Amino acid sequence: MSSSSLQGTPFGQLSLHLSDTDLRETAFEIFIAASGSHKGLNYVSSSSLTPPRKVKKVWGLNNVVGTHHNSAKRLVTIGEVMRVQMRISQEFHSRVRRALLRITAGQHGKRMESLVLPLELLQQLKASDFSSVTEYEACQKRILKVLEAGVLQHPHMPLDKTNTATRKLREIIDRGLETPIDTGRHSETMQALWNNVMSLACRSFDGSVSDMCHWADGVPFNLILYQTLLESCFDIDKATSVVEEVDELLELIKKTWGILGINQAYHNLCLSWVLFDRYVATDEIENDLLFDAEKLFLEVEKDAKGTKDPSYCNILSSALSSVSSWADKKLTAYHDTFYRGNIDVMQTVLSLSALTNNILVEDKSHDYRSKSTEVDISCDRIDNYIRSSVRSAFIQKKENVYLSRRSSRHQQNALPVLSILAQEICDLAFNEKEIYSPLLKRWHPLATGVAVATLHACFAKELKQFVSGISELTPDAIQVLMAADKLEKDLVQMAVEDSVDSEDGGMSIIQEMTPYEAEVVITNLVKSWIRTRIDRLKEWVVRNLQLEVWNPQANKERFAPSAVEVLRIADETLEAFFLLPIPTHPVLLPDLMNSLDKCLQYYILTTKSGCGSQGKFLPVIPDLTRCTAGSKLQAVFRKKDKLIQRRKPQVGVINEDNAAIPQLCVRINTLHHIRKDLEVVENRMITHLRNAGYTELDDMGKMFHLSQNACLEGVQQLCVATAYKAIFHDLSPVFWDGLYIGEVSSSRIEPFLQDLEQCLEIMSSIVDDGIRMRLIADVMKASFEGFLLVLLAGGPSRAYSVEDSIMIEEDFNFLTDLFWSNGNGLATEVIEKLAIVVKRILALLHIDTQSLIEQLRAAVLNEYGSSASSKLPLPPTSGKWNPAESNTILRVLCYRNDKVATSFLKKTYKLPKKV
C-alpha cells in the first residue's frame, strides 16, 4: 500500500516507470526465490485464508494476540498467504514456482544471492507458460525493466561511464522493450544480455569478481521492493490490521535481505516507516501502529549512531524529516487532535518529534551532542508547539463564542461576548494545565506558563480593541473588564505555580504577560462616570437655585424643595455607584464623595450668600457730640414720635435687596435639614462599605466634611444675619428710630417689644425645633447690642438723666423677660450670660455725673499712663462696650442730660452741641 497522506516515500523515486503491479510481482518473485529452499514457505496455517488481527506490539517486539477469525477455515501455506496478500494470481504463483524449481535444479545448490533472478526467469519462462502471447511479452518487458532499474539505473556500485557493458546492456534492453527478444539458450541476444548483465552485476569495490550478484540491492530500488514486501503483512481487506501469520511472514521476508542488500538497520528504518506510513494513510485510526512505529524509531536511533553509510543517512534524513513534519503539524495544533481520552497518542507523537529531531541534529553534525543540548532543542520546539496550538485553540474558542452569540442575539440578559470568551479561555487554561502540560513538561519546564502567557497575549488583543471602543461606563464594559481581571489573575497564578522550581522563578514568563490593567480602565471609567453625574448635578443646582423662592409654605418641613431634590440626586448617585459591579468601591468612593461634597457645598454657600450679615445691618455709630434738653429739641422728638406711630414693622416684607425673615428662616431650615440628612447618607455609605467587605472605616474620615462645615457655618451666619436684620432693619422704626427719642418716659420699649414678639412668633413657627433656640438667642444678642447702641451711640436726639436710669433698667428687664417667656423661652443662664455686660453698663447710668468724671479720669490714666494726667486724651471708639473702658464711660457722660457733664465735655474735649 502506498502512502496517501505523506509527501512521497523517503526511499526516493525510480528513474524509470515500474507500476505497482510490476513491483509486487518482482518482490513476490524475490520472496519465493529467497524462501523457496526453506521449510517456512510451506508452513501450514490452520487459520482462514487471511484472517486479520489488530496490531499489538508486533514486528518482532512482542507476540500478538489475534482478534478475530473467519468461520470458514482451510489449511493454507505461508506462500499462499503471501500470494493473496500481494494480490498475485494463482497462475503467476505456479509459473514462478515451476521456473524456480528448474533454476535451482540446474544450479546444483547454488545460493540465490549468486544468481541474477530476472535473467534466470527470462531464460526459463516460455510463451507456453502463459495464457497469451501478450501476457508473455508483458512479463518479458517487466523483467527487462527490472534489470534496467537494478543494474543500470540504481546499481549497487556506481557505473563506470567507460564500461562498454553498460552501453551494450542499455541497447539490448531498449530493443527488447520495442521487440520481444529470443530467450532461447543459443540466442545471440540472450547471450549478449546475459554476459553484459553478469559483467555489471558481479562487480566488487575491490575490483575482484564477486560470487554475489548485485541486481536488486541498489538504493532506492531495493528499499522500494522491500517496502512492498513489508506492506504485504497488512490485511488487504482491512488496512489497519495485520494477518494472523504476520510473524511467520516477517521471518520469511527477512530471507530476502541477501538479494536486496538489506541489513538490520535498513530493516528497522523501512519497517518503522511502513508502520508510520500505514498509520497516516489509514486516517490515523489504529494507534497501535503509531506506538509500534515509535518503538522501532528508538531502534533506528541506535542504528543511526553506529552507521556512516551515506545512502542510509540520506534515507534516514528524508524519513525523519517526513515524520518530523507530520508531528509538527499535529503538535502545532494539538488541541484539534488530542484530548483526555487519547492523550497517550499525543505522548507518542511528542516522543517521535523529539526523537526524530534529535537524530536529525546528530546526523547533520556527525557529533552526538550532550543530553542537555537535546533537551534545549526539544524545549524550543515544544515552546513553539504550545504557543501555536494555544493560539489556534483561542481562535477556535473565539469563533465559537461569536457564532453562539449571533445565534442567540435576541436573548435577554445575555453576557457580553468577551465575558464569555474570558471564561472559555480560563477553562482552556485549566484543561491545558491538567491534560497537556504534564506531558509537555517532560521537554519544557514551564509548559503551563508558556500556555497561559500565550492565552494572556491572545486575550489582550481582544481586550485592547474592546477598551478602545469604550466611551462610557456600561454594565457590559464592567462585566468584560471584571472578567478580564479575573482571567488575568487566574492565568498569572497558574504561571507562578508552574515556575516555582524554575531557575528564574518564572520571571521571564511573568514579564511576558503585560498587565491588562483592567482595574485602571475601570477606575478611569468610574471617574468619568462620576464626572458626568456631578456635572449634571451642578447644572441642576445652578438652574434650580435660580428658581428657588424659599417659600415657607412649599412643604410641611418648611425647607426648600430644591434641597430635597439635590439630596435625592446625591443619594441616588451614591446608590448607583454601589450598584456598579466593581471591586474597588472603597478605593473610588472618596473621589465621588469629594465631588458630591463640593457640589453640595456650592448649594449651601449659594443658599446663604446675599442674605446679609451682622455688619450690614448695624447702624453707623455717630460722632461724639453733646445735646441739651429744651423746647426746640422736644418739638423735634414729638415730630418723630408721630412719624414712628405711622410706620409699620417690616417683618415678613420682602425688600428688593434682602430676603424677608420667613425666607431667611427657610434657608436656615434648609441648611439644617441638609446637615441632618448627610449624616443619614453617611451612615448608609458605611453600611455599603461593610457589605463590600471594607473594614478600614476609620481611614475614611468625615465623608461630607466640606458640606457639613458649610452647613454649620451657614446656619450660624444666617441666624446672625436674620437676627440683626430683624432688629436693625425690620424693627428699626420702633427700635433704632423710636426708642428713647426725646424724653425716656414718652418713648419707652413697649412698642418694640410688641413688634419683636410678633417677629419671634413668625420665626418660631417656621424654624426647625433643633435650631429655633439658637436663632432666638441670636435675636436676643442683637437686641441687647442694639439696646446698648441706643444708650451709648444713639445720636444727638437722645439724652438721659440719672433719674431715667430706673425706667431704662426696667425696660431692659422687660426685654429679657420676653426671651425668658415664663420659662418657655431661652434658659435663664443663657440670658444672664448675654445680659451681664448690659447690666454693668446700666449701672453706670445710676452713678452721678461727678463720680462718672472721676471714673473717666481713672480709666484714661490707667489706659494712657501718667502722661495723660495734665490733659485727658479723647479715647477712640472701639465698639466693644465695657463699663471699665474710658470710651464707654465717656459716652455715658456725652448722653448725660445735666450741666456738669456739659461743662466738663466742653472744657475737656470741646464737644459741640448738636440737634
From TrEMBL:
Domain of life: Eukaryota
Domain (MHD1) ranges: 478-621
Ranges of residues in domain MHD2: 746-856
Protein name from the UniProt record: Mammalian uncoordinated homology 13, domain 2
Species in which this protein is naturally found: Heracleum sosnowskyi
